[in-house]
């Protein structure tokens, strides 16, 4: 139960194919589908599994070890079916693309250019390559570049596939030096409540609430709303290229700030004994967030995901595991008496309609997230909560008046405690 996990990441990229043969890659994914189907068909016929890889590889128009990887994945699906017989038996009659799974330096290769780009070469068919440049999120590119230049990392298999007609490459990398502690082996659970303008953190151990911190980032909300309005304006004027430029600028700004916030979350969590960081599972977010009407869902959605991702991977570099819980009623439930209703919450203020407890509502949510994290992953009991410590609140230092953020000062680093305690919004 206390086994450490290898630090493995799957990094997703879009392929900017520059060798003018995108159809070759698509054909290869169709060939991968044939290899998969043939494997399943032979396995259902009762053919000896040891002989299947060679039989399929002889007929497939793919690099041999790529076929072997596809066969192994198909046999894995069959094995799962036998082991958990409530699943559907894998089909051997589906058509369409199937991920082309390849070994590093055999079925595909990557290299770092002097310009800092990562180029790829995928052997789609024997002696036929698809080449170009990887594009994707900074966080993923950063890890990949580190992996390409450091002995600590090993690059493993990758899958080339088509997602909404776009070619993608998903690359597995493993850090051979570091491990992440098993999340069941934690003594402190840090609940993270991510909002549009702040993130609330509560560390909960068997002894109760260890500490609460709210990191405010009003400049992210401010800038996102500003860019949103600007983009709408140029879009209505039909100026798509300006629209795209603005979108790129906004993304870089938000990403940069979120990286800093995620670093702060991990730094703060490190002080606690055997911490595990717990987030709300965004797939189930629909009911738990009061989005308001001013902005659309997409606008709100994006930074939540990014912040969770940045935080979890930075935490894993420190050996700290992350977990996800169902967000149902985390923002409405009273952390002391458990009473849950919508009326308990009025924006940033929480007042329990049953026991009268008053609090910063995002802090309350972070307590509830930590409680769910303990129930889901730990074998120790949630402590009885009779009172909660004051909320400490910090925000990124901005030059000039803090309450009128002018937010383009990249040179300003670090955080500053602004002395606000208690319910402050
Ligand atoms: Zn209550």
- Contiguous runs where pLDDT drops below 50 for at least 5 residues: 286-299, 397-425
Q: What share of the residues lie within helices?
A: 25-40%
Secondary structure tally, helices: 8
Query: What percentage of amino acids are in beta strands?
Result: 25-35%
Strand order of the largest sheet: 2-6-7-1-5-4-3
Q: What integer is the average pLDDT?
A: 84
Number of strands: 17
Main sheet makeup: 7 strands, antiparallel
User: What is the distance, rounded to the nearest whole angstrom, between the alpha carbons of the first and last residues?
Assistant: 42 Å
The secondary-structure class comes to alpha+beta
Topology pattern, helix = H, strand = E: EHHHEEEEHEEEEEHHEHEEEEHEE
**Morphology:** globular
Q: Compute the gyration radius: what is it?
A: 25 Å
Distinct small molecules: zinc ion
Can you walk through the features of this model?
By secondary structure, this protein is α+β, with helices and mostly antiparallel strands. The chain is built from 8 helices and 17 strands. The chain has a 7-stranded antiparallel beta sheet with strand order 2-6-7-1-5-4-3. Strands 12-11-8-9-10-16-17 form a 7-stranded mixed beta sheet. The chain has a 3-stranded antiparallel beta sheet with strand order 13-14-15. Helix 2 crosses helix 3 (64-83) and helix 6 (240-270) packs across helix 7 (297-317). The chain starts with a strand and ends with a strand. The protein binds zinc ion (ZN). Zinc ion binds next to loops.
